[in-house]
Amino acid sequence: MLREKRVAFLGAGSMAESMIAGIVQKEIIPADQLYVTNNSNQMRLQQLNAKYGIQALTKDALPYGEIDLFILAMKPQGAADALGELKDKVRPDQVVISVLAGISTEFMEDHLKDGQQTIRVMPNTSSMIQESATALSPGRHTDMDSVLHVKELLSCMGKVFLIEESQMDIFTGLAGSGPAYFYYLMEHMEKAGVEKGMDENMVREIVAQTILGAAKMILSNDEAPSSLREKVTSPNGTTASGLEALRKNNGGKAISEAVYHAAKRSKELNEEMAGALVTS
After folding, report:
1. Segment Disordered: which positions (predicted)?
2. Is 144 among the annotated ligand-binding positions?
3. Looking at the domain assignment, is residue 24 inside a domain?
């Protein structure tokens, strides 16, 4: 059972805290079965201990043999050193998880003993409010029980999607960078309302509620976005006029290109990161 697992966060930054907060709030695992450590910032560890009741320890004091899931949550540049320290301390039945940009299961496997279970995870910034779209990709040696346990654990941040690691770049284009596209859309919708004399705060709430409602409509039934769009688009009506303006200004193409460009850059950054880590 997941509730019996012990989880260690190697790194104590904002992502680690987002996950810890979700786990503690949802009572997925008891707080005293959560461990966090970092290289030197003892004040940060004390803050997390006081706030969440978890066990904040130095690396030397971490009970490696009792841990079920190790989560790499430091800066990516520190991953190789962290994996080197773990190599002789973990067993094949323990799972090493990366939430770091550019740190793949292959990279982890190359730095750990043969047969080690690894999982790569990619959340987005909505994890801070437990509404992330999070991707999960298991390594070559990871069994399905471990995948299911980690998927359940990550549910503290939102919804989890099991994907092939080769799909991580396009996932980044869709979900990793996705919130920014909607913020950009909201920014321009808000600007249009303010330019026509509406209160800025009211417009912001109207736009946010509109996007929230549209998202809930998609999630509450099996209809495709195109079908729902057609249902609210009366011939020669206001929505039809707005959509026609989007088409004339290549709005659809712009959205697709945003996803493709973000995915392309994700691949480039991952390759750059992997190259830098190998040569360092």
Report:
1. 226-245
2. no
3. yes
Quote the pLDDT of residue 102: 78
For residues 145 and 238, state if they share a domain: no
Look up the domain containing 98 and give its range: 2-167
- Cα separation of 255 and 177, whole Å? 12
User: What percent of the chain is modeled with pLDDT above 70?
Assistant: 98
- Model confidence pLDDT, tens digit, residues 168-205: 999 999 999 999 999 999 999 999 999 999 999 999 99
How many structural domains comprise the chain? 2
Q: Is 37 helix (H, G, I), strand (E, B) or coil?
A: strand
Q: Is 253 annotated as a binding residue?
A: no
Q: How many percent of the chain have pLDDT more than 90?
A: 80
Tell me: do 51 and 186 sit in the same domain.
Answer: no
Question: How far apart are the two ends of the chain, measured CA to CA in Å?
Answer: 39
Q: Are 204 and 254 found together in one domain?
A: yes
Same domain assignment for residues 139 and 236: no
To the question of whether residue 76 is assigned a binding role by annotation, the answer is: yes
Q: How far apart are alpha carbons 34 and 54 in whole angstroms? A: 5
Residue 6, number of CB atoms within 10 A of its CB: 18
**Are residues 6 and 34 part of one domain?**
yes
Map residue 109 onto helix, strand or coil. Answer: helix
- In terms of phi and psi (left: phi > 0; alpha: psi -120 to 50; beta: otherwise), the region of 65 is alpha
The verdict on 13 and 149 lying in the same domain is yes
Neighbours of 272 (CB within 10 A): 11
102 marked as part of a ligand binding site: no
Q: Is 31 among the annotated ligand-binding positions?
A: no
Look at residue 279 in the predicted model and tell me its pLDDT.
62
Same structural domain, 115 and 204:
no
84 known member of a binding site: no
pLDDT of 241 over the 80 cut: yes
